[in-house]
Amino acid sequence: MSLMIVDDVVKHILTSKVYDVAVETPLMYAPRLSKEKGCSVYLKREDLQSVHSFKIRGAYNKIAHLSDEAKRRGVIAASAGNHAQGVALSAQKLGIDALIIMPKTTPSIKVDAVLGFGAKIELFGDSYSETYEYCRKRVAETGRTFIDPFDDILVIAGQGTIGKEIMEQLGEVTHIFVGVGGGGLISGIASYVKALRPHVEIISVEPQDSNCLAVSIASGKRIVLPHVGIFADGVAVKQVGLLPFSFAARFVDDFMTVTTDQICYAMKGAFEETRSILEPAGALALAGLQQYDLPPDAKAVAICSGANITFEKLQQVAERTLLGSGKEALLSVHMPERPGALHAFCREVVKDRGITEFSYRLQRRSIAHVLVGLTIAGSEDKQQLLERIKETDFSCTDLSDNDIVKEHLRHMIGGESIEAVHQIFYNIEFPERSYALGDFLGILEDRWNICLFHYRNAASDTGNVLIGFETTSQGELEQALTKAGYTWSCVSDDQVVRTFLSGR
Predict the structure, then answer these.
(1) Which of 250, 49, 80, 50 is nearest to 149 (CA)?
(2) Could you give the CA distance from residue 161 to residue 169 in angstroms, rounded to a whole number?
(3) Which of 126, 357, 452, 453 is such that its CA lies 20 to 30 A from the CA of 471?
(4) What whole-number distance in Å separates Cα of residue 87 and Cα of residue 185?
(5) Distance between CA 494 and CA 498 in Å, rounded?
(6) Which helix (H) or strand (E) holds 206?
(7) Cα–Cα distance measured from residue 119 to residue 115, given in angstroms and rounded to the nearest whole number
């Protein structure tokens, strides 16, 4: 990357127009989190912007700099979330016509928010990639200016005003943690902070299942991820932007990933500190800070980048918070199927521990399979618990890190099917729209019997389904699944799935 581009970004940060519509958000000292972490922790409250996200900064800075002719033609963007609201509000503020292309799966709360800012909406596709391609077509047809969510100098500079504010609010900052999707936010913050204080460490934080920047940096080139996780949908990006990749390679000091459970724990921590609820992507930076090894004299900042979360998703978050804190163990316990076995387990293993979950159903007369959640003090305590179980008549498997269990199996009490044969199990992502299941089954043409189906609404654009088929023609089945166009993966080789669902 040339110094000229870096200088341009810093210049645009210093002359940014974002404060016509955005506010300088507070940098809040977090006493609870500081005590927990053993150093000074600060939260940069971008969730307090009018659209509850930092995205308003970059969108407005880009649109405000358009020529009069470009403004007359209007703007267009492809987004199902915070960028859509940022573009819509910015256009409304400047009196510009805006068209937002959103997936058909977009929850109505997000559609209504964009409409509330006066933008036009077209719904197209089940995924962002389909929506994006349609948006590019509409750019050519309408002559509107496309407002990129992250791969644009003026957008990056708009986001970079956050870095300028941090430097003015906390001159002695030592670490800044930034959640990353396409990379615009971390590019703007890092370019400004490093220009003033090169010793300040900038840490990129991504979900383990959506880590396009970390993978790209490790490979030395931009990588397209074949699949991204959907929990932190605000950063579910398959490829980091071209400009952000260059900025990150030059200015970012460390690249880390966090789990879904750790994100949930960070959301809980932010709530206890502020009584505000961050969205998963918005809590990403704090999740990274909580897992990072920081010295006692650190003054660490986490960017709370957004709070656009549907109420229904909170149940899913609450379920995984304890695991994310390292204060819960989720175990599959095998015990003799006889009177008194459960009592003995409580007496010899549980003792004074809290039980967070207990699921059981009679399957066979010789052995019982029980899914149990127990409170623990930490990883060392969990190891001692597992060792103690080995010394008893019980055996167990630690499921605390198994996402299939946490998303599906912990809610299924039926257990092994006695009559199903030749079972194969898959995880499939469905678009959250009407007729999605019917369309999927229509493509399969009723050729395979479904022997298991589990789905829970995740209050997202996409839902995750655990589904089992009876078949001796796995190759043909998977060709049909591919034809359906939805993301799928075979999980039949997962030993936990086999134990729970097929008894093998």
Answers:
(1) 80
(2) 12
(3) 126
(4) 16
(5) 6
(6) strand 201-207
(7) 5
- Asked if the model's pLDDT at residue 459 lies above 60, the reply is no
The C-alpha atoms of residue 210 and residue 223 are separated, in whole angstroms, by: 12
Nearest residue to 365 (alpha-carbon basis) of 390, 335, 320, 330? 335
pTM for this one? 0.81
- Return the residue matching tokens 């409170």: 375
Residue pair 479/432 in contact (Cβ under 8 Å)? The answer is no
Give the separation between CA 306 and CA 115, rounded to whole angstroms: 19
Ramachandran class of 197: left when φ > 0, alpha when ψ lies in -120 to 50, beta otherwise: beta
Residues 330, 357: contact at Cβ < 8 Å?
Answer: yes
pLDDT, tens digit, for every residue of 108-163? 778 889 999 999 999 998 777 788 899 999 999 999 999 999 999 999 999 999 99
As given in the structure block, the two tokens for residue 115 are 């409409």
DSSP type of residue 348: I
pLDDT in tens, 360-417: 766 666 777 778 888 888 888 889 888 888 888 788 888 888 877 777 777 766 656 6
Give yes or no for a contact between 216 and 328, defined as CB atoms under 8 angstroms apart. Answer: no
Nearest to 418 by CA among 352, 303, 502: 502
Q: Distance (Å, rounded) from C-alpha 111 to C-alpha 100?
A: 10
243 exposure class (CB count in 10 Å sphere: 0-12, 13-18, 19+): buried
| Cβ contact 37:294 at 8 Å | yes
- Span 22-42, average pLDDT: 97
As given in the structure block, the two tokens for residue 396 are 């167990």
> What domains appear along the chain, each with residue ranges and CATH number?
3-52+152-321 (3.40.50.1100), 56-146 (3.40.50.1100), 327-399 (3.30.70.260), 416-501 (3.30.70.260)
CB 245 within 8 A of CB 216: yes
Beta bridge partner(s), residue 334: 369, 395
Query: Among 198-207, 216-225, 442-451, which is the least confidently predicted range?
Result: 442-451
Helices (H), 228-313: 242-251, 260-274, 284-291
pLDDT band at 480 (very low <50, low <70, confident <90, very high): confident
Query: Mean pLDDT, the chain, as a whole number?
Result: 88
Within a 13 Å sphere around the CA of 170, how many CA atoms are in the beta-carbon half?
23
| Residue 18 structure tokens | 């974002």
Classify burial at 425, counting beta carbons within 10 Å of its beta carbon; exposed 0-12, middle 13-18, buried 19 or more: buried
Return d(Cα 110, Cα 389) in angstroms, integer: 48
Chain-centroid distance, C-alpha 204: 14
For 107, the 3-state DSSP assignment is: coil
The set of catalytic residues is 55, 305
